[in-house]
Design goal:
The complex is a heterodimer. By secondary structure, chain A is mostly helical. Chain A has 28 helices and two strands. The two termini of chain A are 30 Å apart. Chain B has a domain of 34 residues. The chains are: A mainly alpha, B mainly alpha.
Amino acid sequence: MGTMPEDGTRTADGELNPAPNGSLPPTSVDDAVRDAEERRWTPAKIAMWVAIALLGGVAWFMLAVVRGETVNAIWFVFASVCTYLIGYRFYSKVIERYLLKPDDRRATPAEYKADGKDYVRTDRNVLFGHHFAAIAGAGPLVGPVIAAQMGYLPGTIWIILGVVLAGAVQDYLVMFFSMRRGGRSLGQMAREELGVIGGTAALVATLLIMVIIVAILALVVVNALGESPWGVFSVGMTIPIALFMGVYLRYLRPGKVMEVSIIGFVLLMAAIIGGGAVAGTEWGAAFFHLDKVTIAWGLIVYGFIAAILPVWLLLAPRDYLSTFMKIGVIAMLAVAIIVVRPEITVPAFSEFAGRENGPVFSGALFPFLFVTIACGALSGFHALISSGTTPKLIEKERQTRFIGYGGMLMESFVAIMALVAAISIDRGIYFAMNAPAALTGGTVETAAQWVNGLGLAGVNITPDVLAQTASNVGEESIVSRSGGAPTLAVGLAHIMQQFIGGTGMMAFWYHFAIMFEALFILTAVDAGTRVARFMLQDSIGNFAPKFKEASWRPGAWLCTAIMVGAWGAVLLMGVTDPLGGINTLFPLFGIANQLLAAIALAVCMAIAAKRGSFKYLWIVAVPLAFTAVVTITASIHKIFSSVPAVGYFANNAAFSKALADGKTSFGTAKTTAAMEAVVRNTMIQGWLSVIFVVLSIIVMVTAVLATVKAFRNTAAGVPNVNNEDRPHPSRVYAPAGLIPTPAERELMAEWNKLPAEMRVERAGHH
Amino acid sequence: MSAAPGPAGLLHSVAGAFRGFARYVQGVMGADAYRKYLEHHAAEGHGTPPLDERAFWRDRTDRQDSNPQGRCC
């Protein structure tokens, strides 16, 4: 520790003087001092960690072993928070100490490339919030809800252990390696580390995966807004609100971000309340009552326009609004769950945990639970955020543990809270809401009959309850509102009304929840389309250089149209799917996201191997192996399974055969046209699965080859190629974590004594 | 901050905490970007005057047009 990595070819110019400037205090806590501090266990410290471990242990015992009638939601909070604390304090420390070995004597890109715009040293606590707002969105709010079909325990275990051992590890590693490379993107790192074949496969896979992710996020919004005049009105109003904010910031009062965000927030609340009034009128109910296909087309047209409009007009203001909402919503959810502490009646393992024909999503617990919950446990999409933007803002190398690993723990906590909110509602309502209309029949009577016929323990629901719940939340119906968002909204409304406002406020809370989920998703859709468009332009630019010019309109518009067309096609497939889209397509979303994680971890493994860290390579190899096995098994199920509900090609064959036999309705498809649609969709989905898995296997194989080569090189004493930026000595100091240690405080005091003119300007403000 | 005892001191420290929180949220939202740019500009000691506030924000969003930032799911 403490010396510069010596495995690089660039070490000749990399000798850093520990005190770069004789007049400055040290830029890093002395390694021996830090070591001694970390290894010193005072009785108070021991008592604290014993207490955390005991509380966590009791909480896990209550969740996993005790089988009472109900379990209190507070145990989910204790089990997760205690596990996160232990994972953060002990496991991420192992990763830091033995695998990454950050060095605070080395300047970060924000210091040596400082430009006041993209590369800006940012206070660690601010950057934590900033990074969290960039990684967390609707994903952790939706996946756990859908996975609740299996009972609460499988999802809880995967969210909490998955994040500690895989998800947070991925985010931390990608962020650190990108920071050492001046903030390079995952795609650029893949090309550098894995060569042309691996790099190209990673790029194409990333592009396709983004298309799938955007499409299925859009599907969640469409399902939440279909036949909901209130929702359509209030979510639709976000567009004029954002346009107004954009004009305000550009022309009226530039730079007044907080001011305009508060104005936007007030308008947003007005839109939610006004939505209730509008939906209550006859013309409003008629005008904003749109079916899902219309909404899907609206979203496609909107997506294209939003992606070609200048950023300042729509994207930037909506991003402010979305960030503002994110901070508020997460805090609200946490406070509500801790204050209300709902009793959970859902069993630890449901009747569907051992079957593969669940009504909410198809497939067996292994591997499909692990792809249904992606965000919150392990999300490959984060690798795109953790490389690029955040690394350009980090002040000191050691802060990557707090921001990268810690930020992901926070997202996992959001997923746990979403799970709690969703399982706090009655199980009968859960299944009536999340099963496709083809099963529930779409009316409260048929839905209640179907749910009661499932033979679920303790479930006996009446049509009145379903109708009453719908009327409480201000909707015409809640039957077959699949996609996760409406269920979470009902759960949140159910919890929040006990906290503020009572039953009379349920409709507001429901639409408030739908609003923020839609806002998060639309922001992700816009940004995703834009990022994908640039990737496509860049790739085509290799053959037709004109495409590389971002300002060349025809190229930009054509590439935008291709990307929107691609996700739009998948979205329409989902919307018109007789099984309701989510049931068949959501696993594809998870598989795509986890394959991206596999790609990111594979790149990290190759980099770690080239740094010579073979002894601790398991830190990367274990999550990589796990996600590789899960996604490849899931893909194989999706491709080769003979069960039509699971396998795309089996479904395709069943419908083709029915058509050949001259049947005019088959399974859930009631017309020949619907049957033909199933044949077409399953074929496309099947081949998409094949392409994904093949590309990802190529990336993983090239990463393993790079790792083996690095091992041989090291054994033979040949230096490995080091693609890190040349080290620069740092001239600033800041502590690593949330609370500075005594040694860090001492050093900060030394820096604070420095005359102002000798100090490099401070990063942010505390 | 050292709060004086009594209700005035309490009010003072509550106001201080609120200001700190507001500053934090501003940082997370990126509302302090221009101030940081000015600090950077002053520290670098450029001969040229810095961009004014309007031009800075214009430049900031215009650069995002050709350099999009991902937002996660």
